[in-house]
Amino acid sequence: MGKTMKKTLGILGAVMALGLVLAGCGSKSTDNSVKKIQDNKTLVVGTSADYAPFEFPIMQNGKKKIVGYDMMIAQKIADDLGVKLKIENTEFPSLISELKNNKIDLIMAGMVSTNQRKKVVAFSKSYYTVQNVLLVQKKDADKFNNVADVKGKQIGAQQTTTQESIAKSQLKGSNVVTEGVLTSLTTELSQGKLSGVVVENEIANNYIKQYPDKYAIAKVKLTTPKDQRSVNIAVRKSDKALLKRVNKQITKLEKNGQLDKMFNEAQDLQVKSGK
Ligand code: ARG
């Protein structure tokens, strides 16, 4: 072997060795979030089941089961990971701390990716878009046409949600009443204890579909800030591998039309279950 040939092989070897080292670094820097879930054979999804058609309870063979659009997507993600799905139902205000404290792997609760939340958790691709409205009693459908009409009225909004901040900043002069569970507020609305509840359009539509004689959407216009419109899945910031896997699944479900199909199925299920 000639001298130059030897030299070339030497350099080639060095380049290959460097390549191996770099590849090694690459695989080390990917986290073990997916592996951990697969080792546990369970994906734990946190939700707040007061939010049909996204998540709501039904009775099945005498047992309470949490179903809905988010839960259908959660099942697809669990299937893709080859693990069982476990739903942790809790009040919406505790979900982010549950995620940060490793009690759950994902939040799927119709949660929008606000700039403030983005500081603490990572969000997946969006799988739904929302707007806010004021849900009122049917008999008051023509009573609340602008902000002045809600002055001095009791207006409900779920604690720590974007509805709370929208109610407080846009329905000035009203008394904003907050609770951890949304269904408590809508019950109070139907009893006349509240004059209105700020909710997202699909939630309002479902109440109206379910109880056409009870509820209506008021004419007063609410503005939904840009960062409060996209519904996403929340993941711990460190769980990069899991986030990648979740995004891949959302893209797939979007492309094959399953997302739309599942949303409609969830709505039908809610109407049938009478919840
Ligand atoms: N989209 C709103 C937010 O992210 C409300 C979500 C409430 N979700 C629920 N399951 N109750 O703040």
UniProtKB/TrEMBL annotation:
UniProt superkingdom: Bacteria
Signal sequence segment: 1-23
Repeat is among the record's keywords: no
Domain Solute-binding protein family 3/N-terminal: 42-266
Family annotation (InterPro entries): Solute-binding_3/MltF_N (IPR001638)
UniProt entry keywords in alphabetical sequence: Signal
Protein name: ABC transporter substrate-binding protein
Record organism: Liquorilactobacillus oeni DSM 19972
